[in-house]
Amino acid sequence: MFAVVQAALPGLIRSERRVAEVCLAQPDDVVQWSVAELAAAAGVSTATVVRACQHLGFRGFQHMRLELARQAGALSLRDARAPLPDDPPERVVDAVFATAAEALTDALGPLDRSALAPAVDLLVHANRLLLVGNGGSAPVAQDAALRFITIGRPAEAPTDSITQALAARLLAPTDVCMVITSSGANEPTLRAAEAARAAGAPVIAITSYSAGPITELATVLLVVGTPGLPLGSETIASRLSSLLLLNALQLAVMLRIPADASARNAVAIKEVLDHQLRTEAPSSPRRRTTR
């Protein structure tokens, strides 16, 4: 639920956003409040609270409060496990992994599952796949490009923003541009998406927010939300969610590839890797000869 609320924030008007922010910041209090108390805490009217709840996908305040009560315990546990400055390294490692696990549990909340099939269809029939990611999303795009290449799909993920925009503008309508941007507002990524749309190519966007500039450019929008998290781990959680979603999309595409083509791809990949291993293998030390 926290991921759903977080993902919807950019699409709310200012007064409704204040209601959502109070719910995220004080979930334990909100589950005990009346609609009037929440309105007072957010500095809005009770009618605004009800509208905010409905715009977040709930039937009303009571429905939202019940769902919040169901998950408030998990958020409190999250805060309780945040490491302290004098904690040993193993304690910090445990906390980071626990936070990541909780983030992944929440991340699918805002995903429109009906958008998955159209995304896979576009990827299956694409003659060429251009992946675009900048900042923290750049490694995600690189990883996805390699995964699609290994199943025989022509894919690329240029790292330079100018190259991204040029490659996007030269796409054909039978190609696909897939952009990864957690914020949905990264300028170089938006320019590449605009260039792809100008070329007539469909754009699949993976983001963490259901509203924002990228949503207006996306042919297919896949929102993998991330709640507010401790440890400065929101970026990490977003990256993990995007990686797993892309992994799932690549697997879905692979399952649609005919068996004979998959077999040829496997043979080609093995040949390349075997050759690379032979090339990089250290040469045997020469034996010294005695005179």
CATH superfamily of the largest domain: Glucose-6-phosphate isomerase like protein, domain 1
Instruction: Determine the strand fraction and express it as a percent band.
Output: 5-15%
CATH fold name of the largest domain = Rossmann fold
The helix/strand class is alpha/beta
Top keywords for this entry?
alpha/beta; Arc Repressor Mutant, subunit A; Rossmann fold; 5 strands
Give an overview of the whole structure.
Helix 2 (14-25) crosses helix 4 (35-42) and helix 9 runs parallel beside helix 13 (234-254). The protein has helices spanning 2-8, 14-25, 27-30, 35-42, 46-55, 61-80, 89-107, 116-125, 138-150, 161-169, 187-198, 213-217, 234-254, 259-280, and strands spanning 129-133, 155-156, 176-180, 203-207, 220-223. The protein has 291 residues and is of the alpha/beta class. The N and C termini lie far apart (79 Å). The chain folds into two domains: 2-80, Arc Repressor Mutant, subunit A (Orthogonal Bundle), CATH 1.10.10; 113-254, Glucose-6-phosphate isomerase like protein, domain 1 (Rossmann fold, 3-Layer(aba) Sandwich), CATH 3.40.50. The protein has a five-stranded parallel β-sheet with strand order 2-1-3-4-5, with helices on both faces. 59% of the residues lie in helices and 7% in strands.
Helix-strand blueprint:
Layout: H1 2-8, H2 14-25, H3 27-30, H4 35-42, H5 46-55, H6 61-80, H7 89-107, H8 116-125, E1 129-133, H9 138-150, E2 155-156, H10 161-169, E3 176-180, H11 187-198, E4 203-207, H12 213-217, E5 220-223, H13 234-254, H14 259-280
Parallel strand pairs: 1-2, 1-3, 3-4, 4-5
Helix pairs in contact: 2-4, 2-5, 4-5, 7-13, 8-13, 9-13, 10-11
